Structure formats: structure tokens, C-alpha cells
Amino acid sequence: MRAFKHWDDGRWANELTREGKIRLMPISYYWEVENVAPGVQDELEGSTRGTHGPMSWTSGPSLSQLAILKRAGVVEVDQAENISLGEVTLVRRGPQFYIFCMSAAADMGIFDNTVDVTTIPDVKALGMAIGQASGGRFDAFDCDVVTYRDVEFQFETADLFPDPFVKRQTFAHQREIRLVFKPAVELQGPQYIQSPTIVAALRPILVPCGILT
């Protein structure tokens, strides 16, 4: 599967293609990067958000209400009479995978402030090269096309679990393809990986010429 990496700083493009150096960020990085990377900030990256309408009780919450409150992180509940709560919200965070985001389109206008685009001839080959060069930091990876759909749900009708290959519909124009890496050890912050095998994975795939008869 071919993809295109869009860069807002040409330095990162040169380091990848010439030196085989790549920076991977955890999913949590994208929750609050609006001022750093316009157009990619998403507070629900790798997450889902559930809501429950207002609740009230006159002699303590019911068992179902207690279950909902517990899921939403409310650990202390007032048992007094005539209690009324507004909307209860739960943000469910998925595992802190590390991701490398690309696109199925080379159009420089897809992401804000794009200054360079690198062609990734084989996304899976790049993932394998990164994993092998990570020094044991990652023990598994996956690659796929991102699906765009609603990641918000109502407690009363549904329950959604976080999926690193799902994003909200507002990002659909980016046509994202991504590599997702599962840490083998506890990691914090950006991870820098460098290897000649990463450069090799970026070489164009040559298809032998055939003879037409």
C-alpha cells in the first residue's frame, strides 16, 4: 500500500529520506497540539466520548445510575434527597500506541502549512523497518486506512471502544493511512528511531519490464 507523508517542516522530510531518522508520537500528543500542528489536533484521537442525559433521585441513585456514574469517574455520590445532575460525560482513552500518520493523497492542501511531501512506496515495509530498528521499544505494529465515523455515543443506546484507526468525520478530507506501533516497554514522549533500513524502505518499488506479445 502506497501513501504520502505531509510535512510542515522540510527538515523532518530530509532526515527521513536521507538519514533514515523518524519521529513517532504517542496518541496523547494529538489531544492538545492545536498551536503546534494546526489541522491535526484532535482531543478524541484514539478515544471515544459518551454522554448521559440529566439524572436525578430522591433517596439515592439507583444501581443503574451508580454504574453510569462510576464509568464516568464519579466516585463519590451524595445520597441526600432531591439530587439533580446535569449531563454526565465519559471520555474513554485507548492504549497509548505510537502512530505515524500519512495520507492516500499527495495534495499539499490536505494539511495546513504543508511544505513538502514524501512518497512512501510500501507502508508495511516502512513499518517493519521502523520496528526492527526500534531496539525492542515496540513489539508489534499494524497499518491500515483510517475509517471516519462518529466516536461519540449515548450511554442509554450504545457503547464505543477506542480504535486507533477511527477518526471523526470532520477529518475525512485527509484520507489518512497510518502505522500504529504497540510499545513493548513503558515509553514517554517522542521516540526517535534511525536506521539505513528505513531509507531502504523508501526506495521506489521497481517492477521488471515484460514483453508484450
Biggest sheet descriptor = 5 strands, antiparallel
What is the end-to-end distance? 30 Å
The gyration radius over C-alpha positions equals: 22 Å
Strand order of the largest sheet: 9-13-7-2-14
The average pLDDT is: 81
- Structural domain tally: 2
**What percentage of amino acids are in beta strands?**
25-35%
Q: What fraction, in percent, of the residue positions are helical?
A: 10-25%
Secondary structure category = alpha+beta
Spans of at least 5 consecutive residues whose pLDDT stays below 50 are: none
- What is the number of beta strands? 14
General form: elongated
Detailed description of the structure:
This protein is of the alpha+beta class and 213 residues long. It folds into two domains: 3-46 and 94-201, no CATH class; 48-91, no CATH class. Helix content is 17%, strand content 31%. The protein is built from four helices and 14 strands. The strands form five sheets. It has a five-stranded antiparallel sheet. The chain has a three-stranded mixed sheet with strand order 6-3-11, with helices on one face. It is elongated, with a radius of gyration of 22 Å. The mean pLDDT is 81.
